[in-house]
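tool=predict chain=A
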Amino acid sequence: MNGTDITAPDAMAIGSRLAGARVASAQPARSGGNNRVFRLEMADGPPLALKHYPSDGRDRLGQEYDALSFLARHGITSTPRPVAKDADAFCALYQWFDGEAAVLRPQGDDADQLADFLIELQKLREAEDAQNLRNASASIFSPEAAIAQYEQRLDALRRASDDHPDLRAFMEGSLVPSTVVAIRQLRRRYAELGRNPAADLAPTHRALSPSDFGLHNALRAEDGRLRFIDFEYFGWDDPVKLMSDTAIHPGSDLPEASANRLIERLSRAFEASDDAFAIRRDVLYPVFKGIWCLIVLNAYLPDSRSRRAMAAQGGDVRIRLAGQLDKARRLHQTIRPTDLPK
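tool=predict ok
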């Protein structure tokens, strides 16, 4: 077996071996650009989830399995409990969660449920085994690191935009000018305060972050409570990035009031132990919005996972790309002057 394909019979065989019990059937539960999940009906006992990971150079299996093992050891029950793994087969076995994709029917208390989980998660920062956790995927620990991440993404899309004049017009006419203003004012604010924007955030002020977190990676149980899945990017990060990514993520599509509620609650929690949190939040939030516009446009990169996923889904890729460009435009329109630091 390779790291890209898995069939239902494969899932049954691997699941039986990992569980030490017979799997009666395997049904694909959901598919995505990063993994494939099977619901395993056990001959005896509750169903389990078998997750198959891509072989793409990143240890997605190890990062997620370690993260969920850490959370389970510390009594977190809203995330799946790991059962067993087989790195050679690119597979891991987890507790199965029933529930509807939360993003299909958002509820009024979603922002509070997201905030509750993230705030509860920070109580584990001082746990002895927390120090063994990796950094989150695409983590940043200084404002200059965020700027560098923006510039790297921009450079890649600029190269790809030669064949896409609409993409280039949006980037050069709208996105780049507004982000240049945000970056200039970030550096000016740090200079006024005598702070070094290249200095790394102290470990005591870092956050435990799922990194890719929101309604798009949550299931809603019958009682309305959210359960959270997909922790392939989990690790240490700047809490401002955690807050920004969760509030902005297009997959969650949080209404403005809900996003503001999330920001308010997380800000209060992090400001209590980090007197510079509000400074970083105010100058970095518009930069992260710029980064997210570029992430939405990743499908324009010829070798990107999102481009390959589009091709696999069939249809006219050009139409799908135009849809991503429209999504980036709408996200960019939410970067109002009030988002920019004074």
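DSSP finds ten helices and ten strands in the chain. The domain at 8-96 is CATH 3.30.200.20 (Phosphorylase Kinase; domain 1).
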